[in-house]
């Protein structure tokens, strides 16, 4: 929720910022930042509810899919995906 709800965009330059992880460099830029309506907490909650309502059906439908922890170094994520495609790990049935 924090990662999504605190995203902001500078309408002048198109640069994207995050109020915690990548704040705007100057007060002038910070004053003109705008939040996309999709990034408001109530909209994010709606999307999450939809996701959790449908995730089991999707997992059942895509039974050959694999879980990727993308909260890692991009190289590690790439290596994992590549290993699943080239030499798939045995999966539970």
Describe this entry's structure for a reader.
With 93 residues, the protein is mainly alpha-helical. The protein has a single domain (1-85), classed as Rossmann fold, CATH 3.40.50.300. It is built from 4 helices and 2 strands, in the order H-E-E-H-H-H. The model has no long low-confidence stretch (mean pLDDT 90). It comes from Piprites chloris (Wing-barred manakin). This is KAD8 kinase.
Give the key terms.
6% strand, mainly alpha, two-stranded antiparallel ribbon, flat, AMP kinase activity, 93 residues, single chain, KAD8 kinase, 47% helix, Rossmann fold
Write a brief structural summary.
It contains 4 helices and 2 strands, in the order αββααα.
């Amino acid at each position: 929720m924090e990662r999504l709800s605190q995203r902001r965009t500078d309408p002048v330059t198109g640069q994207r910022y995050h109020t915690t992880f990548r704040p705007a460099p100057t007060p002038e830029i910070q004053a003109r930042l705008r939040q996309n309506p999709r990034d408001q907490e109530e909209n994010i909650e709606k999307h999450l509810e939809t996701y959790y309502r449908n995730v089991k059906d999707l997992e059942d439908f895509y039974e050959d899919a694999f879980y990727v922890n993308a909260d890692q170094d991009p190289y590690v994520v790439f290596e994992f995906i590549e290993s699943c495609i080239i030499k798939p790990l045995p999966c539970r049935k």
